[in-house]
Amino acid sequence: MNTTSFPSAADEILRRAVTADAPVPGVVAMVTDRVGNLYEGAAGVRRVDADTAITPDDIFALFSTTKAVTATAVLQLVEQGRVDLDVPARTYLPQIGASKVIDGFTASGAPRLREPKREVTTRMLLTHTGGFGYDFFNSTYARLAEELGQPSVITASKAALTTPLLFDPGERWEYGTNLDWCGQLVEAVTGERLGEVFATRIFEPLGIEDMTFELDDRRRARLVGMHARNTDGSLTPMDFELPSPPQVHMGGHGLYGTVGDYMRFIRMWLNDGEGEHGRVLSAKTVQMAVQNHLGDLKVTPLTGVIPSLSNDAEFFPGLSKSWSLPFMINDEQAPTGRPAGALGWAGLANLFYWIDRSNGYGGFWATQILPFGDPTSFGQYLEFESALYTSIRQPSAAVRY
């Protein structure tokens, strides 16, 4: 890897992101190998209405990058023989057994519900084939919210999870609240809140200090502000914060944390489950988990139905994509240079990461902008990832920055 050229290329990409015609307010980006961070960069400000520079130690709302952490907690229970991925999830979480499939609406606007043809399993929840969706990606859920007052997942409430199934479990991939249900399953099996499980069984062996479902004053002082992208490309700061403390530790999106702490999580996956201070998963479990668990189904594009929350978005359009237990898999080499079989995903406020176990690299790009699929943030992230693979093809002595 040419570690002389990559840091300067990465710095320039971050600079372009914060000076573009439609700039990001601030960005933190990092790359790691199996040993430690190769690059740590930051550019811009925490909020556009203040002059505080963003730093690598700042706290982000991590949104759906939370999902892989929740999947890890489930996999620990599988290792311990406490969860079977293929028995009905109601075995551990009875309330999920009450979920019905919605087959449209009656003339009066009431949901038309029926029993599902099969039961939801934990494997289905992990692979987003359980039947649950999000209102910002699904028009049926959006109608439930608009006309019937179905609470948004950002309320972090139990009521937010009581949505019908969009289809019979196992029939297709649809992104949604499946991992929030997994978090509830972990709590039911362990008898602990999800944040407590994370703290003792994942964060402690990884050396993670700042990830939390519940912001305190110390972390809030380093919180990066949320921003809305306007139609003219400008940014409006938002006083956005998930409930603290939340009624539910939302395993699908509820964590706050630093990019540096997430890099410790990525390194665990690069190192077959081993953390800086202990093992999180066995190598056998990791190797099982990162395989394709979707079968012949494929990951499909995300269609935004609430413009303030998401644009239409897709990783690597035209390329086949599958799902492991915690991550998306690109089945073919990506235009960035990411090899076939690599792992990755994203968070709603335009956070993106990838994990390349074959080459031993991973990276994370963090902004706080809505809607998802922001052209500047997403585009510059892809440039960032591409720069890493360009440097890999230019060998030189390894140096850390």
From TrEMBL:
Xref: InterPro entries: Beta-lactam-related, Beta-lactam/transpept-like, Diverse_Enzym_Activities
Limits of the Beta-lactamase-related domain: 20-372
Name the record gives this protein: 1,4-butanediol diacrylate esterase
Protein's organism: Rhodococcus rhodochrous KG-21
